[in-house]
């Protein structure tokens, strides 16, 4: 759950980024950003985001939400992510992480878990040393089976 203080801080940071790009935080953009912030642990498609924004702003249109997330993606406020379903989803990039965070994707239930630790620091160093390539960012999705699904599998075995 995001606190009111964090919501205010992140909203202010995003508004500053928009202003630096010569853009305003319009009421429609603000409603979209607030919805992203309130659902920061979810990986929403534009359509899912639209449905949530529409609850608070019934006059907003789908095209407005699409344009807003594209502007936010261009400014690196959100990242476009695609999992196995092939649908583009938007993941809020908060100020607590230098690199884009990693994901654990359960191939049984589809649950996505975020890892906010930078697990690839050593890999980045090796890439620099071996190839002279400076990594600015990276994305890592590990696919497997989550704890809940593993527990269900074990329970099913135990019940036999």
Quick overview:
It comes from Liquorilactobacillus vini DSM 20605. Zn(2+) binds at residues 106, 109, 146, 149. The chain contains six helices and five strands; from the N terminus they run H-H-H-H-E-E-E-E-H-E-H.
Spatial gap, N to C terminus: 39 Å
What gross morphology would you assign?
globular
Strand content: 5-15%
CATH architecture descriptor of the largest domain:
Orthogonal Bundle
Number of helices: 6
**Number of separate structural domains:** 2
What is the typical, i.e. mean, pLDDT? 86
Give the helix level as a range of percent: 40-55%
Largest sheet: 3 strands, mixed
Order of helices and strands: HHHHEEEEHEH
Task: Count all strands and give the number.
Answer: 5
* Category by helix and strand content: alpha+beta
**Arrangement of strands in the largest sheet:** 4-3-5
The radius of gyration is 18 Å
CATH superfamily grouping of the largest domain: Winged helix-like DNA-binding domain superfamily/Winged helix DNA-binding domain
Class of the largest domain in CATH? Mainly Alpha
Family: Belongs to the Fur family.
Cofactor: Zn(2+); Mn(2+); Fe(2+)
GO molecular function: DNA-binding transcription factor activity; transcription cis-regulatory region binding; zinc ion binding
Organism: Liquorilactobacillus vini DSM 20605
């Amino acid at each position: 759950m995001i606190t009111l203080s964090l919501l205010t801080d992140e909203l202010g940071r995003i508004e500053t980024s928009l202003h630096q790009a010569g853009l305003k935080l319009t009421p429609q953009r603000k409603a979209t950003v607030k919805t992203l912030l309130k659902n920061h642990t979810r990986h929403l498609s534009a359509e899912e985001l639209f449905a949530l924004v529409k609850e608070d702003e019934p006059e907003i249109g789908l095209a407005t939400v699409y344009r807003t997330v594209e502007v936010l993606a261009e400014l690196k406020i959100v990242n476009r992510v695609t999992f196995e379903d092939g649908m583009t989803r938007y993941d809020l990039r908060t100020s607590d992480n230098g690199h884009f965070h990693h994901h654990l994707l359960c191939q049984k239930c589809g649950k996505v878990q975020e890892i906010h630790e930078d697990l690839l620091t050593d890999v980045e160093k090796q890439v620099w040393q071996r190839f002279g390539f400076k990594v600015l960012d990276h994305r890592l999705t590990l696919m497997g089976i989550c704890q809940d699904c593993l527990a269900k599998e074990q329970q099913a075995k135990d019940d036999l």
